[in-house]
Design the sequence.
């Protein structure tokens, strides 16, 4: 049940990022909510599988930058999820620049933290 809650929270956060961040857009031909749900599922799976490895590998740089590099790791994971969503499912997410991906990762992190605190999930 925890993964389903994490998936829903991520979908809400991705929808907020698509709505707020210019350059992070859904360009699919189908329903936008279905594409956002697929992208959120892939992002949740990437966060569960690849994120711990990248956190350990980037730990020295993260410590030197006092945690700021952690935002770069989140941005990289967003790029990986967009690449997988477009390649495997044709979800149609377009990231125009690194800046838009960076801001989108910040928005997704903030909205996820807020929704997790409302829902009471510890993910």
Sequence:
């Amino acid at each position: 049940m925890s993964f389903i809650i994490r998936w829903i929270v991520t979908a809400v956060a991705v929808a907020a990022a698509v709505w707020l961040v210019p350059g992070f857009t859904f360009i699919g031909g189908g329903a936008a909510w279905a594409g956002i749900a697929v992208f959120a599922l892939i992002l949740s799976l990437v966060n569960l599988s690849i994120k711990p490895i990248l956190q350990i590998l980037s730990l020295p740089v993260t410590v030197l930058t006092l945690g700021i590099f952690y935002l770069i790791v989140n941005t990289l994971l967003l790029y990986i999820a967009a690449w997988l969503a477009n390649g495997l499912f044709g979800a149609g997410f377009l990231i125009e620049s690194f800046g838009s991906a960076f801001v989108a990762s910040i928005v997704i992190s903030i909205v996820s933290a807020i929704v997790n605190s409302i829902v009471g999930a510890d993910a």
Remarks:
- Residues 2-119 form one domain.
- The mean pLDDT is 88.
- Helices lie at 2-20, 32-49, 51-57, 59-64, 69-89, 98-119.
- The first strand starts at residue 24 and ends at 26.
